[in-house]
What does this fold into?
Amino acid sequence: MIVTQVRGVKDEKEVEDEKEVEDEKEVEDEKEVEDEKEVEDEKEVEDEKEVEDEERRQRRRPSRQISSPNEKGSGEHQRVALLIAGDGYSATAEDVARLHNDLFINYKRVIPPVYNQTHSVKVALSLFLLMIHDLDMKNQVLTTSGWLNMQWDDEFLTWDPNEYGGVEDITVAQKSVWLPDLLVENTAQNFAELGSDTMLVSIAHTGHMSWEPGILTKTICEVNIGKYPFDFQECEIKFLTWMHTNKTLDVQPGSDYVSLDACIQNGEWDITEALAKPYFYPSTYRPGTAHTGVTFRIALHRKRTFYVLNTIIPVVMLSLLNVLVFLLPASSGEKMALAVTVLLSFTVYLSIISEVMPKTSESISILAVYLTLLLSLSTLSVLSSGVVMNMIHQDETRPIPNYLKGLLCCRMRQIRQRLKIQQRRRQLEHDHSFHNGDFLLMRKRGPPDGTAGSGGEGRKLLEERHPHSHVNHGVLHADGVGSVGGGGIDGGGGVVRVVGLEKDSHQLRAAESSPLFRNDVKDDVDYDVWNYITWLDVGSSIDNLLFWVFLVITVSSTVTVLLLFSY
It folds into this structure.
């Protein structure tokens, strides 16, 4: 019995185990069925997507249906539809995305884009100039703006357009592809890479790359101020590879000229020439190689109108005023004031020009030299004016040195003429009476020095013609003639004033200025002219001499400077 019971228990356990195994198998079968359904669903979804994509392509591509020539029935199996693609393609976003993934999945932008790494990458560099902003003469910095055009071939970025819906070119961010390491070599600011991460690069299906980064450069430009403001300047913008040598990167000009098609004119400078030349610099870390690049040479010509109107013409006018100082009478108080004013004007113009000039001794401005010369002449004119004014205020009794009298040799004729006119005036005063005036001329002549003579005849003549007149006795030295004094007329060559009579002085002055009057003057009295020279004559002679000296120097220097500017 006991054995029978034990067997029954074992049988129950075996049945239970079998049921559990069967349940597990059923669960596994259900999972497999579900997995198969999921796979089928995924396949269906993919098939649907492929059908939709194919339908879209067929709709966008020009196509036509060609039926079989043996078509007789209406069944679909008797028709053959062929889709013939036209010349144009219309790519989808999926095509472009797939192309990007295929191109850049294994792309390394640090590797030069050639399969044979012993070959160098050929880059063509061109410059499109937009504007010349400024040429800072003092700091010798040229500021320009524009954009570069660089083209090269990337062997790693090529594809067949037919495999990507006809996509022939794409644009990517410049940080995604290999770029030539070009920098502005002669920059006047910090070295910086060209372009920015937001700029794009165009890639053709042949691997041809086009990159056009915008630039705003400040470059060093050695200026020549010799002919300022009629100067010509030649500035350069140098682009050079920084680490790559000619073994890995060869940069050459894409054109012989800088493109000025989009250039905006500058108000101060005209561009006369813009050339592009190849440039290289020996490598400092790899002997035997060189860094390659391009030099863009820009020739500038300054526009002259502003400087002619605001600098050249005023300076020339001031130089003439510098000479006209000596034409003012020596006794004029404005002589010194004019000389000082001209001196200060030259100082102001020289300071203005010095502000814009670079502090260099390699080239000296002709205009600055010219202004310095005029400033020196103006200083001498101030000094000479002070000396002349001091001379004319000397005491009349002080003798004039012989070396100063020697300066009057060229003016002796004028001095003699003046003395003769004075002598003739005294003769007219002696020989004629102006009945309508207040002067009665004595008949007796006197020498030029005004020595007294007998005056009885004169008094008698006065009393006979004007018995009721009162004689104003006094001394008259206007022309160095005789005197009236005491109780009567003592100077034979004197002039007396009759109170109550008015004189027409214009008659006497007209007679003195008449050519007949001057021709009638005779040197009938022998006297020494040197005894009648005054300090005023000496000052006038010095002014006359300095006038011609300054005029010759000013005119010759002005003509010389203008001729130098024209060459």
